[in-house]
Amino acid sequence: MSATELTHLSAAELSAKLTAGEVSAAEVTEAHLKRIADVEPHVHAFLYVNEQAAAVAADIDARRAAGEELGPLAGVPLAIKDVLVTTDMPSTSGSKILEGWMSPYDATVVSRSRAAGLVPLGKTNMDEFAMGSSTEHSAYGPTHNPWALDRIPGGSGGGSAAAVAAFEAPFALGSDTGGSIRQPAHVTGTVGVKPTYGAVSRYGAIALASSLDQVGPCSRSVLDAGLLQDVIGGHDHHDSTSLKDAWPSMAAAAREGATGEVLKGLRVGVVKQLQGDGIQAGVAQRFSESLALLQAQGAEIVEIDAPHFEYAVAAYYLILPAEASSNLAKFDSVRFGLRVTPEGGGTVEQVMAATREAGFGPEVKRRIILGTYALSAGYYDAYYGSAQKVRTLIQRDFASAFAQVDVIASPSAPTTAFKLGEKVDDPMAMYLNDITTIPANLAGIPGISVPNGLAPEDGLPVGIQFMAPACEDARLYRVGAALEALVEAEWGGPLWAKSPLLTAAGLSDTSLTAGRA
Ligand code: GLN
Predict the structure, then answer these.
(1) Ligand 1 — pocket residues by CB below 6 A?
(2) What is the CATH number of domain 3-264+447-514?
């Protein structure tokens, strides 16, 4: 099998080959590092490529050869969003204020990945401190969508999604506060999961908005996302919001779901407020087609009214900046990263101000100002207080919906990938991308985005989102895998095989489908 073919295999397929001894971790890692070297000048999914990756892979091979009992994923490569701290690679969260900063400890999801034998390939690009929907707010330049290099890869986790879509890694870690795993999945034709709040540890995830942040997987298949969630999920005493529940295997749920059995009698809710206005025609069309596919397999479609969803974006863009302004106060020039001293010296306050002025980008400053204002005496009740009340009403809308249905479906985002530069100067237009993903974060429930074909008007990927009640993550993997199988049957194979990947950049790749059995 050629190096190129190896990069087209899923994590599940790589795991089977590695455990059967058909391929070594060193070969798999080398193939992905070569792919990274070839496509990075065009895609820029990575902020840092792990210089130790080959050594880590060689160590896995040596341990396997010595008869050590390794996990099934040992030797499979992994990309890591730069919001997650790592001891052996810099962690910047996409910001200049953390340039070159090295963490003294690993995020729990990183240490669990290492313990499972996954090989960290590097740290992926993101909007600064995970604020954005296009990765254009990264202090290190944007990532390009592998389906069309002049378009955004989504955000804030555009680097992780693009790395997976460009075959630089079979799967990646992301974080989702308002859609940062699911919306990039939608625009890059990949799978993205935001687990239940508390299902995956956030220890070592640089905090954006602590009541919303959740770490999760992205991949090219629902099964691979499940394999990764099984590695990173479960209780962690380092994170006080981590749930103590015992979780079923998400990979097993995905395998079970692929048979389609789960669809018989499944009640699928379609929220009136997540339809219509602002949804691109082709995105809406693919969504209705998939509802018809689900119905043909025995699912029942139920119209749901969620009257408070229309205030979700407004409430989120008060709660998030409020929490972010408080979380980012720790970047004070004393404890982490950058320190800028005004000419001729200055007081502590002047050094802090100069550092934050130089270290934070415009979107981060905008949100700190908004958040500080929303929390200030005299305005607290009117803004932050009201937003929290709306949040409760949205949670009640979900509760009454889930009394009638098993899952809720919606388009994962309103449009296909827009052009780089198109919305970067228009915060409102940027914020409206999150309209379909934000409700799940406000309610703490899980959501998955599954590739749902290409939009007829521009040939770009679209996703379908499913949401389930809190702690029903396995249900999402079942339903997601069932839909994935239906969409693949409809499109004659996995969507990623249709990627015109990088031909425009002169990196034509004719063997894209070769690795898939
Ligand atoms: N687009 C959202 C925002 O800008 C998503 C953030 C996230 O999930 N990290 O806030």
Answers:
(1) 130-133, 156, 175-180, 208, 320, 434
(2) 3.90.1300.10
